[in-house]
Amino acid sequence: MASLYRASLAYTSNTLFIGRKNTIEESDRFIGQKSFVSTPNFSASKLVVENLSSNSKRCFGVRIPRANVEVVESPIVENKEKQKDRVLKVGVICGGPSAERGISLNSARSVIDHIQDDDLHVSCYYIDCNLNAYAISTAQVYSNTPADFDFKLESLAQGFQSLSEFAEHLASSVDIVFPVIHGRFGEDGGIQELLEKANIPFVGTPSNECRRAFDKYDASLELNKQGFVTVPSFLVEGGGFNKSELLKWFATNKLNSESGKVVVKPARAGSSIGVTVAYGVDDSLNKANGIISEGIDDRVLVEVFLEGGSEFTAIVLDVGSGFDCHPVALLPTEVELQFHGSADVREKDAIFNYRRKYLPTQQVAYHTPPRFPTDVIEMIREGASLLFQRFGLRDFARIDGWFLPSSKFSSPAENDNKFGRSKSGTIIFTDINLISGMEQTSFLFQQASKVGFSHSNILRTIIQRACLRFPALASYTSASNALPKGLKSPQQTDALPESRGIHKVFVIFGGETSERQVSLMSGTNVWLNLQAFDDLEVIPCLLAPPNGYSSNMNQDEEYDVFSRTVWSLPYSLVLRHTTEEVLATCLEAIEPARAALTSHLRNQVMIDLMEGLSKQSWFAGFDISNVLPTKFPLEQWIKQAKEVQATVFIAVHGGIGEDGTLQSLLEAEGVPYTGPGVIASRTCMDKVATSLTLGNLENLGVLTIKKEVRSKEELLNLPILDVWHDLTKRLKCETLCVKPARDGCSTGVARLCCTEDLTVYANALHDCLLRLPSNSLSKAHGVIEMPNPPPEQLIFEPFIETDEIIVSSKSTNANAHRLMWEGRNRWVEITVGVAGKRGGMHSLSPSVTVKESGDILSLEEKFQGGTGINLTPPPTSIISEEALARCKQHIELIANTLGLEGFSRIDAFVNVDNGEVLIIEVNTVPGMTPSTVLIHQALAEQPPMYPQQFFRRLLDLASERSNE
Hints:
- This protein is of the alpha+beta class.
- The chain is built from 32 helices and 38 strands.
- Strands 12, 13, 14, 15, 16, 17 and 18 form a seven-stranded antiparallel sheet that branches. Strands 24, 33, 34, 35, 36, 37 and 38 form a seven-stranded mixed sheet that branches. A five-stranded mixed sheet has the order 6-5-4-3-7, sandwiched between helices.
- Helix 2 (101-115) packs across helix 15, helix 6 packs antiparallel against helix 7 and helix 9 crosses helix 10.
- The longest helix has 22 residues, at 592-613.
- Pfam families: Dala_Dala_lig_C (PF07478), Dala_Dala_lig_N (PF01820).
């Protein structure tokens, strides 16, 4: 085992953060304690999962700089020295040419976060759109999207002249490769063939099998050949359209040639890119032609739309030895599309598309296990495992499909004897995902946590399984190397005497504002990062409205603040898509019948897994307990925080989390919390009050935007033309920006160019629309998520024009690595984090925000992984170092004038010549998602501050304030 270190987290007076001088791979890590876990009774199959004794327990701590490490004398130090040559070197490769390369970057970041340790060293590699390979730093992996660094790869990364040179480098630098490229080149056999030719071990399925499974049309033919029920489909190829053949296909499948509903999707893209619904032959060919002309794929599949079916997805894990395949399907997840309000009801073409999959809105909900009959769940698991084996897949995969009740699906008689038919209905497997998404709350981690695997444990299990196929890596598959990172639930730590020195942290997220889904993402990210410290017990907590989330919930209704409830959550219930889903799973978990069914299914999967894993010397057991959520009234939850001396990490965006209410309640009980105090929170939540507080700083280089407040009722009841003329006259502008008065910065923000735009916006408020579709207004824009319910007060202000910034990855010209900006009006939009103590706030490096879909940053560009471009630090071609320094001074002046402390985020415009700042708004509980610019900015500090250290520093600032 590795040697024991104690952290010396020292902070000097000259710098806010002490971080690592080098990359995360070069840091040291603590040995930790392995938690006790509850496991099913395996006596029937003579299987035992040991509860590790206290001598072999592991907890784990932050990776820290060698200079700040105090070595504690221990007999295991010698062991560490002996095992230095046993460090497994893993090369994580992300990016790729597909539209999913941004998601690939997020997956890679998640993988690195959870596998890096003393016994496993990670190197990072990136493939760009043109299949050029680069060795990149870990810091680049924390970028929001490849476009953040694509244009400067030549100066930041080690490039390779060819893929063969890249393969030679991998052969000499890593022991095994973990490809995390989604779509083309990652799942079609491309990267696998490159590695095979160079004899480089890798995780996942071989190239030939990848090719056969990746092409949806070929895979469908193979599924039919292997005896599975399949969806009737027709192939359209780029060489030409055979309309007469498609007409025959429509007739054969009893579809109306003018209105028959079908799904049109690329045959060789990811599971959601380019997927659309079509009606009739002509519409099908038009949409197929669109996919081909856009360059997504030249092979397009037309499939019968499975009306009345329920979509599901299942992760399959191979727990065999060597080349012996022993696939086990985990608990499948049902994908439920949800419709709220008249806009969604009209969305007849609703499918589980890219936006629904990756953006946290109420358009979709997941159910694990599915709400299907038990025999159907068992058949899905059996079929997915059988498919995995027959297609020759390796290590892990995700299998998607549909369940159609018996009355909903009719197929040719030839399907009657095929796998998928049951008394309850028909199961159809439709998509094979060879490299499943691995973002923090992806299906892989949702399903794995349900059966006892933490993020670290499932990823290391996959890697260790892959190593078994390569004799040269056999020495790395020992139990001491494979111990997963431990987790400490409240029930577990109470029973452990060693836990007396552990400090409790309650991470609270959720709430009832329109930003509650982003809050869930922030809280989850903070929770996962803070788990890396051996001296912390981090407990995720959901803040819920008094009566739960309902369609008629009104955020402006005056609730008694103490009528709200807080749920203390077990591991698996946090990894959800929305706050509504988290709450629903909490209620499900304590409902006796559903809880009993879930427990039974969980135990069955764990027994199946242990049939293979019990034979592996490296497997140390499951590390997630099957515990129940606990519900508290808010007042009792705060008193509990006081009793256990917990620090509260506030990740509730908007509402009581950001307006000073929660801060006031915590202060009354003496409970330390993160972020600014009551007065500063209250001031910044009110955008008008923020401007008034900063109004006297104009001579010091800080400008404010004039604002007008209007009520929703005024917009709905007064003539729109009169309202428009009054606003533009008072604000002295021709174009308006509208936003909710007391909400966050990500919903309901739009540019209005004319009275017609204001009419569209007012009608959306009246109809309680959840979103404005793309280009609903006169100026081009992406989808605008609207607050739900609509806000009672709205702020109007002049729209500030800035010059368009174009990054090279969006350009198709040969000059591939350039940043284009004309700089006519000399103002650019920035967002910048501030952190520190009151009166001494420190400005991080600002980020220049680049809008891709319109004049206002969309919800996707702010918070959805793989979208949005943030240039951190601002390129000197846009703003000089001198102007940037003055900008940071102005940002610090703003922070100190407002009385900020802990951390916040300031959005503004900056004059690139003199560093003057035009303030937009201040967010005292900023987004803390894996894609947040705060992480990019912390990494730009000298020395860089990695996410675990960053969130720990924010936590420590709260503790230091409470001790003053």
